[in-house]
Amino acid sequence: MNWYKLGKEEVVKNLGTSIEKGLTDTDVQKRLEKYGTNQLKEKPKEGLVSKIVEQFSDFLVLILIAAALVSIIIGETRDSIVILSIVVVNAFLGIYQEGRAEKALEALQNMTSPTAKVIRNGYLDVVPAANLVPGDLVVLDAGDIVPADIRLVESSNLKIDEASLTGESVPVEKKSNKVYEDDIPLGDRENMVFMSTIATYGRGKGIIVETGHNTEIGRIATQIQSIDEELTPLQKKLNELGKYLGIITIVVCVIVFGVGILQGRKVMDMFMVAISLAVAAIPEGLPAIVTIVLALGMNKMVARHAIVKKLLAVETLGSITVICSDKTGTLTQNEMTAVRLFTGNKIYNVTGVGYNPTGDFKIEEKKVNPKEVIDLKNLLSIGVLANDADINSANEAFKVVGDPTEGALVTLAHKGNITKYTMNKECPRIEEMPFDSDRKMMTTFHKNYIPGKIVSFTKGAPDIVIKRCKYISVNGEIEVFDDSLRKKVLDVNNFFAKDALRVLALSYKEYDNLPDNISSDSIEMEMIFVGLVGMIDPSRPEAKDAIVKCKEAGIKPIMITGDYRETAYAIAKELDIAKSINEVMVGEELDGISDRTFKDIVKNTTVYARVSPEHKVRIVSALKANGEIVAMTGDGVNDSMALKKADIGISMGITGTDVAKSTAEVILTDDNFASIVAAVEEGRVIYSNIRKFVFFLLSCNIGEIIIVFTSILFNLPIPLLPIQLLWLNLVTDSFPALALGMEKGEEDIMKLKPRNPDSPIIDRHMMVDIIVQSITIGATSFLAYIWGLKVFPDSLMKARTIAFSTLILAELLRAYSSRSERHILFEIGIFSNPTMIYATTLSFFLLLGVIYVPALQPIFHTVPLRLVDWGIIASFAFLPLIISELYKALFNRSKEDKETSMKLYKERF
């Protein structure tokens, strides 16, 4: 249906809805059943068959399959079956891991799905956009992503960015009163807004006419939100590492094959050894393990109130050196409460906390009825009328729907028995100039407040509103706002600000008729000043602890706020962000300096007051120019540039606009600064765990090469058969490596300096550690093999079983040592990672199975071992663990690490 050709009343009638109350819950449920959810059709997911084909298309796996087929041809059927079985098990483990990662990412995608403001049953509410139906009455404000195709019924300076749909680069002005007779192009329909476009200015209200795949954008199958499936720098580095190791391993395998042939060994035997050695040496499961650890780490962050939308962000979080945080709601509780008023040359105190509309107005401890004091009544009325928020009392809990500052004004008016519903009904809004960050004001026009007059009510930043007022209301009388009165008001404003109050100024202006020219220069000038409202948003109790943690971690916290210098400093000092007011910079000062000068100043500035979104971009640019890795918070439409510019953009999940959420890499579900620090900590833990299992896998796999290569060089029988190498690879690579990825993190990880994001995953220290551990594992396993050959000269199979068992046990014990690069095992606790206990226990019992289960012995070429044999094996297997721990204690720790380790040791023992 061509909804743009219908008038408002026809749309209402056709969809059976109401412009005032919207739909009822019953209507919504019926329409959901009829029309389905408001979601676009997703791309078909990759099927099981495709995933299986992908697993078997790996180059090394194909070589292994080829080797197995060759073995069948020459009569080695049993070995071939086992090799193929192990390949199949590895493939399905890979599919399982990918499935877990996909589910984790899908869960995060669902959590970041858009919401919409909708009026149902006559009340404003916020609901998931997927639950919207035709006939729903939707409210749009600047920053909202349009959730469906909507026919507007109200609009006030509403502008929509339709670039995603029409390609139009300039936001289009919308007018609800337009009705068209002829067919017109999509971009010219001024009475319609379309799914996935963005409200950039003004506000509007409209009725949903199409949802899901029936929308304009649904018809061209465009999806509005998705989580990028891009390789992170870490994954790219690991892929490059895998290729590099592959080349080295192939060279080694060729040498092993050549030496074996020269020694007179069978070609097929050496072929199988070389192939299986290559597969065992290269950690082909590493990318899959990294992906699942990153994805599960993202899920762990959700539990700490941070939704990370991209795998890349998980890595970058651990490298953050500066966190630029908005003050309101992030460092504070975001429950603005009006506590002090100035009007009629008097200061009033207001009791009550949060959005609960109960409290008293007092002057010198004497209660006052606001309706009996004309200036006070006007102040409260302006605050509730020039206001887009509302208070919702569902479930006996009062919460704001909209901006917290406006919510505080609604609550304030309710305390004086001036309700938003009644005022809006008696004095309807007929026009408005929405708030924007450049003007720092909002103006609405109303009729009936003063009989026979149109009145504009303005609220905004005191310094700007006071400058634009020519008159002042004192006891209901209008006086000229002379310098002495202006100075008094400014002094009161400073007095409020020094007490860390956020202050708004309120004013009004009268007209005989609604002005034709509605612009800031004509309307928001020569106004009548009414008063000031001082609000407080208490700091979060956990914020101060989080800031201490930041500083210990080498991260500089910076507070950004629209408050005045004194107010900003008062909060920053309380939170220990700033120690001197000299660390505070005001937006006007920032405008007056060059980028080069600011690059130096930014090093010693911890608080930015009275800043605009453009200032945020400059702050980020200056910090990055100094080599900092910057996280920036934001919630508004204009914050999107700063969020994009930062290394990590962080949006508020509660107060953030849809635009900010779609731009950011991280969304805070509780808008809490402590959650940013928790996400940084989790990012560090995840990266540390990835280093641990890379270290573990490479040292073990290179150790396997060493024992086979050494045996070939000494012209000894091959210590490990292809099937044993493949089994060992499956056991040692999968379970302990995943367990290392589940480490909870070292207790002092937030006392380390931030990691350089350009540093390689295998740095110089790790390379030395890998060499030491590889030689230790390979040498001890080789010595155990030599011992077996000498003690059991007539049983090569027993010597091989001893070497096989020693190598597996050494690698399982090595997994425990890999749990920390700096702390010895007794300091972190042997049993502090239950997953590691389960993984190594399972692996050890699987080892016992292939040794003692009669049906498996001929397959794996093993024989039962005596208890005394296990004693010798254990003595060899423990050597790599002991050497690793000694090396760690002697060479891998700084003085601070050793002091921390001693403290941990004393706490545990």
Note down, in words, how this protein is organized.
This protein has 909 residues and is an alpha+beta fold. The chain is 50% helix and 17% strand. It is built from 33 helices and 28 strands. The strands form four sheets. Strands 10, 11, 12, 13, 16, 17, 18, 19, 20, 21 and 22 form an eleven-stranded mixed sheet that branches. The protein has an eight-stranded mixed sheet with strand order 8-28-27-26-9-23-25-24, with helices on both faces. Strand 17 and strand 18 form a beta hairpin. Helix 3 crosses helix 5 (77-111) and helix 8 packs antiparallel against helix 9. The longest helix has 41 residues, at 673-713. The radius of gyration is 35 Å and the shape is elongated. The relative contact order is 0.08. Mean pLDDT is 85; it is low at 221-229 and 904-909.
Tell me the β content: 15-25%
Helix segment tally: 33
Low-confidence stretches: 221-229, 904-909
- Cα shape: elongated
Number of strands: 28
Radius of gyration: 35 Å
Q: Tell me about the biggest sheet?
A: 11 strands, mixed
Intertermini distance: 76 Å
Structural class: alpha+beta
Mean pLDDT: 85
Name the helicity range.
40-55%
In a few lines, what is going on in this structure?
The protein has 909 residues and is α+β, with helices and mostly antiparallel strands.
Fold blueprint:
Layout: H1 8-15, H2 25-35, H3 48-56, H4 59-73, H5 77-111, E1 115-120, E2 123-128, E3 137-141, E4 149-161, H6 163-166, E5 172-173, E6 192-193, E7 198-210, H7 216-219, H8 233-262, H9 267-281, H10 286-303, E8 306-308, H11 311-317, E9 322-326, E10 337-343, E11 346-350, E12 361-363, E13 366-368, H12 374-385, E14 390-392, E15 399-401, H13 404-415, H14 420-426, E16 429-436, E17 441-447, E18 454-460, H15 462-468, E19 469-474, E20 477-480, H16 483-498, E21 502-511, H17 520-523, E22 527-536, H18 541-552, E23 556-561, H19 565-574, E24 584-586, H20 587-591, H21 595-601, E25 607-609, H22 613-625, E26 630-634, H23 640-645, E27 648-652, H24 658-663, E28 666-668, H25 673-713, H26 722-741, H27 764-791, H28 796-817, H29 825-828, H30 834-852, H31 857-860, H32 867-891, H33 895-908
